[in-house]
Amino acid sequence: MRAMTLSAALLFSAAIPSFAQDASRTQTLADIKTELGQVQGEIDGLRSELKASGAAGLQRAGGSSALERMDSMELSLSHLTDRVEELENKINRVVADGTNRVGDLEYRVCEMEKGCDISKLGATKPLGGGDASTTPSVNAPASDSATDSPDLAINEKSDFEAGKAAYEKGDYASAADLLATFKETYPGSPLMGDAMYYRGDALSKEGDTANAARAWLAGFSADPTGKRAGDNLLALGKALGQLGQTSEACTTLGQVGTRFPGSSAAMEAQTARQNLNCQ
């Protein structure tokens, strides 16, 4: 039964591109993001189940390609989640800009009308309805809570620092183990992008390129717009190239320049693409 469950789940990778098209038109972007998060959780659970089943379970699930297919699913989910977030940000900017323009018109009309008290105009209702206090301003984008005021659990920072310290001392095996425990203990941590970057590099230095790639993928998926996102995506692309997955490597490295133009990661990704003879 477990093998059948895993195989059916892996087949979901082929359906990911049509996910958004098949979703109900009444769903909000927040609903879709929640569902994507739930799918990510299912993938994590299946990965753990697959590893726990041992060699026999891995063979029944499709052999060594099973984990690679799950990685492909995870990367596709990450790209889709990022596209949803991009769309949400664009909509927010349009709403904010439109609301500001309507408010300006109301102010100007009031100035022209006799007896109109500008002080009583109040806040302009945002386009599409909703609460004006929650409408984002195009001139003041929302801050990154993970950077400005992270909400950390007890021992979360110290556990991260312990893994980082082991990495900096060159104890890469311990660093990888500590940061793996951090990932399991603090899912959704604002430090996850950094934690998985260091874990990936530690595993890479230990010669475990495949699991290093998975760590960088997890880091990018956890925070696709954070300060480590470009580094994680770059490292993932390079690792895919080392693993012989040239097509996936070229696509991933190309995304670095698209998502983070002008960054050092983008320039390094361009060099890596040239070395792989990407078209």
TrEMBL record:
Coiled coil: 29-97
Compartment list: Periplasm
Keywords: Cell cycle, Cell division, Coiled coil, Periplasm, Signal
Bias kind Polar residues: ranges: 132-148
Chain ranges passing through the membrane: none
Signal peptide boundaries: 1-20
A GO BP entry: FtsZ-dependent cytokinesis
A Pfam entry, by short name: TPR_6
Primary localization class, coarse: periplasm
Region ranges (Disordered): 126-151
Entry GO CC: outer membrane-bounded periplasmic space
Cross-referenced InterPro entries: CpoB, CpoB_C, TPR-like_helical_dom_sf, TPR_rpt
HAMAP family: CpoB (MF_02066)
Similarity field: Belongs to the CpoB family.
Purpose of the protein: Mediates coordination of peptidoglycan synthesis and outer membrane constriction during cell division.
Designated name of the protein: Cell division coordinator CpoB
